[in-house]
Amino acid sequence: MEKMNKRWILAMVLLLGTVMLTACGQKYAAVPINEDVDICAICNMQVKDDAFATQLTTKDGKNFKFDDLGCMNEWKKENGTDNIGMDYVRDYNDKEWIEFNKATYVYDPSLRTPMAYGIVNFKDKAAAEAFVAEQGVGKVMTADELASHDWTQNMDNMNMDGDGHGHGHDEGGTDQGSKHDMGEDMSKDMHQEGESKEGSGSH
């Protein structure tokens, strides 16, 4: 009888442990992106429901979203990583959430991302290598290798289309098109400024 009681107690302890682990996993689970309200915790730009969105949840349950992996890296530099329960990136191909440490990354300064850090994410190395082969550019990196990455922004790739977001290398056209759009915007601003000065001088 005593042995049966010990076995029952042991089974209950194991079950309780499983429930607690499951609850912890749910606590740090990735949450959906809501473009209407989600703002990057670093650059304050809209977080789009795209392959570049990233997020983390702290151990005390606070969720932070970012429009670019580089912004999440900035948050970690400012706040440290000890209190992070889990951090996530999205697969470039199907937007599935992946744990940051389990993803594979491709970096090239010519790759256009929302804040011009030039890093895209993949669920496995094979997908990352296929992307590099298709694009003809890119360095495949692990999460550990990103720790020593310089995180330089390529300001030539900052999108000037009004929402502050760039595109992937194969989505947003050539860099020349980007610079052309930027030049048009600057020209319009200068023209409007000239008209404003003329108008004010007539009073």
Automatic annotation (TrEMBL):
Pfam family of the protein (one): NosL
Lineage: Bacteria, Bacillati, Bacillota, Bacilli, Bacillales
Start and end residues of each stretch annotated as Disordered: 153-203
Classification via InterPro entries: N2O_reductase_NosL (IPR008719)
Name of the featured protein: Copper chaperone NosL
Compositional bias annotation for Basic and acidic residues: 162-203
Gene3D superfamilies: 3.30.70.2050
